[in-house]
Structure formats: C-alpha cells, structure tokens
Design goal:
GO molecular function: oxidoreductase activity
Largest sheet: none
Pfam families: MPAB_Lcp_cat
Shape: globular
Strand content: under 5%
Number of domains: 1
InterPro entries: Lcp-like, MPAB/Lcp_cat_dom
Distance between the termini: 42 Å
Number of strands: 0
Amino acid sequence: MALTYDDYLTDLKHAGDPDADAVVRELLDNGQVNSVNELFREFGAADQDVPSQAPPVLADYLEKTRSFPDWMESQRLDDIAEFFQHHHLAASAIQATAGLVGTYLSPVGAKTLLSTHQLSQQPHRRLSQSTRLFMGMGDEDAFTDRSKLVPTCQKVRLVHAAIRELHRRSGEWDTQRDGAPVSQLYTAGAAVVFSVGALDAMERIGVSVTEREADGFYYAWRVVGHFLGIPDAYMPASRAEAKNLWDEARDREWARSDEGVLLTRECIDLYESYMPPGLEGAVPAFLRLALSDTYADMMEVPRSAYDLGADALSTGASALLGSSATQNAAVRPVLDALSTGVERVSREAFTHGQETEPQMSDRIQ
C-alpha cells in the first residue's frame, strides 16, 4: 500500500541518517572536518580509489555507500538516457530555479539552509553546489560504475549529517517543533520536488515530455534518493505514487517564511544577472509560470512586465505527451538563457576560486 504524507510525517520528521551521522560525529570529535573537505576534491568518481589518507571511518563509509541498489534495473537506464537526451539542460534549469524555490517553500527547509555559516549569504556558491548534482544527472556515465554523480551524492549526504549534528550539539534547534534538521522527511520531500515537481513545472511552461521519458526521470531520482541516504521504502516505487504524494504534501507543507523569501530573492537576483539584453524580468516571470501565482506569491516573487503567456498549455502542449519541443514560443529563449546561466554559475564559481564541491561545515552561525 502506498504511503501517505501522514506516514512520512510520523516516520521521517525526526529521522536522521544513522550511517552518515556516525561518520560525522567522529570527524567532528577529532577535528577532521576541514581536512576531509580537502579530500573531497580528490574523490570524484565511483570507480576511483578512496584517498589513502582518508580517516578509516570515512573510507569505510565511502566504500559502503558507493554501490548501486540491488533493485536497480539495467533496462530502465535506457529510459533515463531518453529523458536526458532530450531535456537535460531544460530540466537542470527548472530544478535550479523552480525546483530550488520549491524546497525554499518548506519553512523548516529554508530555515535549515540558512543556518550554516558556509552557505548563508553566499548564494552563488550555494546554487553552484546544487546545480552540480542536477547537471551531473545528465552525464553519460551518471548511472554506471564510472559515475561522478555517486560521489557527489555521498558528499551531500555527509553535508546533511553535519548540519544535523551541529544543531544537536548547539542545543538551539527546536526538535520537538521542527523535527530533525535536514530530516529524512525534508530529503525525501526534496527528491519529490526535484522529480515529479520538476515534471509538473515542465508541463506548466510548455515543455512536452513523453510518458517513457517522465518515468525515466523519476526513476533516476529514485536512484539518487538511495545514494542520498533516503530509505528505499520511502521513495515511491512509481511516478504515479510519487505524484499523489506530491499533490498531498505540497498543499500541506508549502508556506511562506522570511527565510524562504530571502532565498528566493537571492535565486532570482543571481539568475537575472545572467540574462542577456531584452530578457530583463524574465526570471520572475518564468518562476511564476512554473510554480503558479499561488506559490509564487508565497515567496513574494515580483511581477514582471515580461510576458511568457498566461497559459503555456494554450499553445498546444499537453500533459507529458507530444514532442520534446517547447510548445510555448515565449518560453524558449528564456529557458535557453536560463540553461546557459545554470552552466555558467557552476563554471564561474570554479574559475573564480569559489568552492563547487559539497562541503561539510564545522560550525553554525
């Protein structure tokens, strides 16, 4: 029987990630977090040896968590490849904008994201590290033994564990009210936002995706969720089940928060800075179309004179059917510019000496 949102609240709101949490506790106790962050730069592919200087607890974790799940079906990889062949850049742009704002619409999630000194007030760095995962999902080897995506997920999992442990030690996080920081509820919810939520946004802006492609994209996120430490039983087995969960959770979970509004404004400002002449105001207009006015209003997304059309579906796109083309002609140049911007955010962070690897924090604000 499919799990309901109430099941997720009961089971996951206070749940951490025992394997990753144990690693982080030892690293923090031994003052090894900063040296481990240095090691992260030397471990970038699933078939690469763990650096010999890695602390034993980290080496054991990296070895234990690098294998693909037993339930992964090789034939489903063709469905994943089909999606990313047609929609890699569009999906990355949507995840890096509407998808991230979707996670900011979780008040506890937004509060947590701003809680560590390494991520607060650094939108360029924060967004470049997020786009690393989105872009990596479309790599040719992403779901093979040569994957660079798998180590990225392993590192993100430890970053989440570090935030949990630091808040536990601070004694300032209201666990009774808010649950565990970066709880399994939040991580599983983010995976649903970035999968079926992204597909919903693609439909709203007029990007037409076949059923096979959509199933492949969701399946990719089931695999990614496994590597992020989400218990397999809590990633719905099918896209239909995930969509039902998404519809229920979104209405109950999403709400305005000061932290969410701030994060959304930083996201808009950053990507607006990458828009070419003539597309000023296109990013907030894009977000309003992708999220709907209801949720855009919660995050105080400004209204723009840029017109993307009141209804993308009126141009002929149908829900998850048809060609891979963008049917809303007004959206196409904006989506192309955003795709370029997402790539540049990641590339320029690296070339400007900013950290693009996921990094654990050893303190909170």
